[in-house]
Each structure stands twice: as C-alpha cells, then as structure tokens.
Write a structure and sequence with these properties.
Strand content: 5-15%
Distance between the termini: 51 Å
Pfam family, one: Glycos_transf_2
Number of domains: 2
Keywords: Glycosyltransferase, Membrane, Transferase, Transmembrane, Transmembrane helix
Order of helices and strands: HEHEHEHEEHEHEHHEEHHHH
CATH architecture of the largest domain: Alpha-Beta Complex
Largest sheet: 7 strands, mixed
Number of helices: 12
CATH superfamily of the largest domain: Spore Coat Polysaccharide Biosynthesis Protein SpsA, Chain A
InterPro entries: Glyco_trans_2-like, Nucleotide-diphossugar_trans
Number of strands: 9
CATH class of the largest domain: Alpha Beta
Protein name: Glycosyltransferase
Domain Glycosyltransferase 2-like: 48-165
C-alpha cells in the first residue's frame, strides 16, 4: 500500500479514536459518577401500572401477581389483553379474583382493523384513573417489591418522565452474554445522555410518565404508523433536560429473559429496526457518529496490523482506549448488574460496533407488520 494512503488511514484511525474518547469521557462518565439515592423514599402519589399483553398467558401468571403485591400504598394495575387467543383472559380473570386493584381492558380481533402495541397502550392509558403512569411488559418482573416506590419517588418538581433500566437475566450462552452486553451499552448511552441534559430514548420495560404529558403531546399520533417506538420515539419527542430524570437503584430494575436463539433474537430486533431514523436530527447524528467511528476504529486498527504501518503505536492507542473503558465501565457494569461480562469487553465491543452498522443498514430496508 502506498505510503500516503497508509498515513491517511492512520490519521483517520486517530480521528476515530478521538471521537470514541469523546463519547467515553464526555458522555459515559456522567453515569460513572452518578449515585442513586439509597434511602427508601416516602412517597404515596397514586400510580397506574400499565401492561400491554398479546398471548402472554404464561408470563402473566408468573409475573403479574408479584407486580400486584408491590409495597406501595396507592396503585392500580391496568392490563390490556390485546387480541390474545392463548387463554390470557382466563389467567387474568383468575388473578383479578385475588387482586381487586387489577383492571382488565380487552381488545378483540377485527378483520378490517389491525391493532398494535401503541393502540393497546393508548386504551390502557385512557382506562387508567391516575395521572402518573408506570409501564412494563408482561415478561418482566420487578427486582423487588419497592419498584413502584422507587420509580414514583422520582416525580418531583417539573419531572414528567422517568427513565428506568431493565436488564436481562443471566444465562450461560454466548448469545445471552452478547444480548446483555448490547443492552447495557444501550443503557449507558441513553442514561448518560439524560444525565447530560439531552435525553433521547427510554425502554418500555421500565418507563414512567404523566398522563398530562401523553395527551398534551397527542400520544403516539405522530408515529402510530411505525410498529415500534411506543417507548423510545415517545421519549425522543417529549423528553427534555427539565422534565426527565433517571432511576437506576437496583430496587427499581425490571428483569426479563433474553432470547435463546438467533432467530428469535433477530425477530425481536427486527421490530426495533428503523426506529432510529425517526429520532431528532441531533440524536441521529450523535448515534451515527458513535456507530461509524467505533466500527472504523477496529477496521483501521486491523489494517495497521496487516500492512505493518505503525503497529506498535496503533496497539498503544487500542490499549489506552481499552484500559480507559475498563476503568469507567467496571463501575457502571457493577451498578447495572452486568459485572460478570466485563471480562469480555474487548471482544464484545468490536462485535457491538459491527452489529450497530449491520443492523442499522438492515433497519433501513426491513419493515415489520406485527408487534407480537
């Protein structure tokens, strides 16, 4: 390879390193330095927990009773049974006999009208009697009986949006480890952005906002035609530095099982593909620059080794970035209950940036017509 081409590639490699350094130090250290309140707060504002469920009989039977047993003084649980045909109605009716604060909203299949999760959630929000809404999924289980307490306590002052965290349960497979790694990297990005005063997304497995915010912004109307985005698109359009906070105390986590096969994981990810292009311009640019610079960083490092152009210097740059990642992420991973996968950081980080770019391209061309 010509010397001037090698030099240009090395300069680009250094530029990618600087950009990645900015994200790591400028953004992720916000979460590194953040410590949630440890004392259990005294709060009693009325809360409505809303769950949209389609063919979730097994998960409802396993998780819903735990949600209904939360140690919170004033709350209801609204479950929207969205066109289920797996006996979910029987499960819900049985549970309702034991827990009077369970409210059931039923949607039936219509040949002419196709419903989706956003429609189901909208009906659930309309049926909720309280101003403060807390969302999760049927396959999620709160870490403790203080989940509602922790999330509700964050509604102070001007707060209208609370971004929670929902990790996947630990498994033994390679896929499980990577899914958990991808999930924590996503969380680091959106939680750090919120702490920096520029929130751009949240996850529906653990998210809270007010009914006033929902109806004041016309709910999901602007993106009802998009299958996914009931969580991140809503947050992207309505979150601000003034109205958004995070809650990452371990009491407030909601856990769920990760997909166990590549096919089921890809199907899950396909529902989320393409949503990012609907984000605000600055957020699309922020995420794109991170994804592309991270990918090119590893590609250009490999080229430096292959063509033996400043391999020691390139190796030193890589080592510096990795050491810095270990320092910052060791504390964050522990906070977010994924400390066991810190040791695979160098390997998974490279795969993660490949994944972001490949799935980003796929998301541009693939459309999904069913949410479940």
């Amino acid at each position: 390879m010509e010397a001037y081409i090698q030099e240009a590639l090395f300069v680009l490699f250094q530029l990618c390193f600087i950009i990645q350094l900015y994200y790591l130090v400028g953004n992720h250290t916000k979460l590194y330095g953040y410590t949630p309140s440890q004392a259990l707060p005294d709060v009693s504002i009325p809360v409505s927990v809303i769950i949209s469920a389609r063919n979730e009989a097994k998960n409802l039977a396993a998780n819903l009773p735990y949600i209904l047993q939360q140690t919170y003084p004033d709350y209801e649980v609204v479950v929207v049974n969205d066109c289920s045909y797996d006996g979910s109605d029987v499960v819900l009716e049985d549970i309702q006999r034991e827990f009077a604060h369970l409210k059931i909203v039923t949607i039936t299949e219509h040949d002419r009208y196709k419903t989706g999760k956003k429609f189901a959630l909208t009906l659930g929000i309309k049926a909720a009697k309280n101003e403060h809404l807390l969302f999760t999924d049927a396959d999620c289980k709160p870490a403790t009986l203080h989940w509602i307490t922790r999330m509700a306590a964050r509604f102070e002052g001007q707060t209208q949006l609370v971004l929670g965290y929902s990790p996947y349960l630990r498994g033994r497979s390679f896929l499980n480890a990577f899914v958990r790694f991808e999930t924590v990297k996503t969380a680091i990005n959106y939680l750090s952005a919120a702490l920096r005063g520029d929130p751009y997304m949240g996850i529906g497995r653990n998210l809270a906002y007010t009914k006033t915010l929902f109806f004041g912004s016309k709910g999901f109307a602007s993106h009802m035609h998009i299958l996914s985005g009931d969580d991140d698109l809503f947050v992207n359009q309505n979150a601000s530095a003034e109205n958004t906070v995070i809650e990452i105390h371990p009491d407030a986590f909601t856990y769920t099982e990760a997909k166990t096969t590549l096919g089921s994981w890809f199907k899950q990810k396909k529902r989320h593909m393409g949503v990012g292009k609907e984000y605000k311009n600055r957020h699309r640019q922020m995420l794109s620059i991170d994804a592309v610079s991270g990918f090119l960083f590893y590609v250009l490092f490999a080229l430096c080794l292959v063509f033996k152009f400043e391999p020691l210097l390139a190796g030193g740059v890589l080592a510096f970035r990795m050491i810095l990642q270990f320092i910052i992420y060791s504390r964050i991973f522990k906070k977010l209950d994924v400390g066991d996968i810190l040791w695979v950081l160098p390997f998974f980080d490279a795969i993660y940036y490949l994944y972001l770019n490949v799935f980003g391209l796929i998301g541009t061309f693939i459309k999904t017509t069913r949410w479940k």
